[in-house]
Amino acid sequence: MTILVAGGAGYIGGVCVEKLLEEGHKVIIVDSLVTGHKENVNPGAIFHKGSIGDKIFFRKVLEKEKPEAVFHFAGLIQVGESVKEPDKYFENNLVEAKYMLDVMMEVGVKKVVFSSTAAVYGTPERVPIDENDSKIPINPYGEAKRAFELILQRYHEAYGLKYHIFRYFNAAGATEKNKENHVPETHLIPLIMQAALGQRDAIYIFGTDYDTPDGTCIRDYVHVADIVQAHLLAIKNMEKKSTGIYNLGNGGGYSVREVIETVKKVSKKDFKVIESERRPGDPARLVASSKKAQKELGWKPEFPELEKIIETAWKAEIKNG
């Protein structure tokens, strides 16, 4: 099968390309390299540098390569930045993604798997979050992702688009070829590993008085390879079910203290931890139920435990620097 991976030079996209090639698929990467990395471009794939929002460019790629499906990972991901620069996030994560769909419909590529986010739920009504719970995002990042989900549904109804959507919070871990590498880095696990490596003076805990067992926030962590595996299952599932929306999570979540202590255990290094005040807008628990994905897709995470996730990330950090 020929599959186009939008954002294939990024973290999750790079792992997706790696796994698709291992399964024998022909892979096309489209990435502007604004947040992706040239060194992440897998040499086994065909690479086109450019934006999915550039209709002329994207049409040429589709007409030349003739993919049967698109995996869409090309998006900005910093929640805080989205609040400060909403125009940037609505343009990139919504408008340009909509242009991508328009060209797909014109050319006749009618399958897409979309990397969404559990941030579409906003402050959860309950934990773990179910796919049918209210979608009331509280920042432009989540709002843009939610709006694109609605566009996918309308394009399905009007134009016959087949789509699967995955909502998850924190992709984590690494493979032998791809590790987490954002500039600037905002994700907890790589930040803690930087402290373990002496690349930052300390790691901060923002709030220690939450209604959780140890007082710190609890979040979901899903191994990047497990996220990609769900995407591969989605393509097969489209043969019998044209649309699907699924959470990907571990069901229990881990606290900030647990993550810090697990990095210390895996790395065998100690580092300074500073307790600070809460940040505005941080819910105590954000955990997504993945029962639906397990039942309908047969999704079974290979790395359900936090320690195993961090072991893969640490190994890649030491190996690749």
**Strand residue percentage:** 15-25%
CATH architecture of the largest domain: 3-Layer(aba) Sandwich
Question: Please, what is the oligomeric state?
Answer: single chain
Task: Name the helicity range.
Answer: 25-40%
In CATH's first tier, which class of the largest domain applies?
Alpha Beta
| End-to-end Cα distance | 34 Å
Tell the overall outline.
Answer: globular
CATH topology of the largest domain: Rossmann fold
Give the full name of the CATH homologous superfamily of the largest domain: NAD(P)-binding Rossmann-like Domain
Strands in their spatial order, largest beta sheet: 3-2-1-4-5-6-11
Mean pLDDT, all residues = 93
> Rg from C-alpha positions?
19 Å
Number of helices: 10
Number of strands: 14
Domain count, please report it: 2
Largest sheet entry: 7 strands, parallel
Helix and strand string, N-terminal first?
EHEEHEHHEHEEHEEEHEEHEEHH
Low-confidence stretches: none
Structural class: alpha/beta
